[in-house]
Amino acid sequence: MRHARRRVVRRVTRLAAVGGLLLGGAMVTQAAMASETPGAAARPLSSAGDAGDTGAALVARLGTARTAGSWIGADGRPVVAVTDDAAARTVRRAGAEAKVVSHSMNELKSATATLRSAPRVAGTAWAVDYRTNRVTVRADSTVSAGDWSRMTRVAARIGAFVQMERMKGTFTTRLNGAQPILSTGGRCSAGFNVTNGQSDFILTAGHCGPAGSTWFADNQGDRQLGNTVNSAFPGNDFSLVQYASGKAGAGADVVAVGGGKGVRITGAADPTVGQRVFRSGSTSGLRDGQVTALNATVNYPEGAVTGLIETNVCAEPGDSGGPLFSEGIALGITSGGNGDCTTGGTTFFQPVTKAMSALGVRLIASAQNAGGAQGSPAPPASGAQGAMAPSAASPGSSAPVTGASEAGTLLARLTDTRNVGPGLLVIAGSLIALVATRYIRAEQDRKAYQRYYSATWG
């Protein structure tokens, strides 16, 4: 009876170990395949979440005479700048953090209006810094001492809350993604795919080329993408490139981030100060940083562009027109800035919601967006990052870029420990169980052998 029980235990242990091997293999395969196309049940990919919405809603409720903007704190909570204690109590009751400041948004906007009415100086830029309750005016290395002195006098007349800063480098458009697009005027990066319901377009930067520009996907000019049919620069910085075929094709909801990989775009929104954002470009690839200001003005040599998103994300020539996004939400298209991705710098973006509204187009978004379909209207352009610390944000769900080698991407997924780790652990545990079972059986047989011959030869 005892021998029968041992045989049953060994058989059960062996079956469990083999079952573990099969389960581990299934987990590896499932993880590798699931990483290719994340299901709609994955965690929400909207960056238009509660934190940004709460801050924007409180600012709208209290008015610009009693507030001075909102942003996302390091802990992911919304922070609202207010000018009186009663407004601060209202903000705190709503679950947000209140910061009492000296100057209202009305005063800050009046300051930028005064700067805008002064004689334009190429190489300067300004924006409202919500977190310090100041207007920051910057000048690059091309601004002469005389022009800087004149601007300083204008700022002094406005008030001490206008801060003047000199910067290295020059404020230039990033002409020269997302995937590269080329014309006789230079190289830019594709931004987002959009549609008007009849034709599909690439939304990119306006300074990349005027209406009538022809774009190609290769240096030889063999693969024509399409032509620019609408362009705005300066003033704004956006343009539409109509696909020669009329349609964007497969993968229209994906932006490239390098290495044959992409990020699915599920909607569009306006960003919030403090939000972590990601930019992709054909020169410098995927880069990240934070939104530092909104409604910025930049005086490029070609003219002034207003209403821009200011960030500390780096960019280089050729990145122009490339997409700005976070958590799969389209935010802007690369306009220009200073510095590079070695020393860092400031980069400005055209808000995507404003560009689409002016052009009468809508985003081609992933069907994962709450059951929507490609070409469905974007979600409301409200607030930004939702209820998470900026450091916790991600670009969005991954997706292969159309045209990438399927064999290569499958191999990468099968060897990616982030995907197959749990399955490999189960397989390893099962192998250990099989080895242990074999060892135990051998040990039991050896002892039985000893007992038998001990009794025989007693």
Folded structure, characterized:
31% of the residues lie in helices and 29% in strands. The chain has helices spanning 2-34, 50-62, 85-93, 105-117, 145-158, 352-359, 406-414, 417-457; strands at 67-72, 78-82, 97-100, 124-129, 134-139, 162-166, 172-173, 180-183, 186-189, 192-195, 200-204, 214-216, 224-232, 238-243, 254-258, 261-264, 267-268, 276-281, 285-300, 303-311, 323-326, 329-337, 347-351, 362-363, 398-400. Residues 28-49, 369-385, 403-420 and 448-458 have low confidence and may be disordered. It is globular, with a radius of gyration of 29 Å. The protein has 8 helices and 25 strands. The protein is an alpha+beta fold and 458 residues long. The longest helix has 41 residues, at 417-457. The protein has a 6-stranded antiparallel beta barrel. It has a 6-stranded antiparallel β-sheet with strand order 12-13-14-11-10-24, with helices on one face.
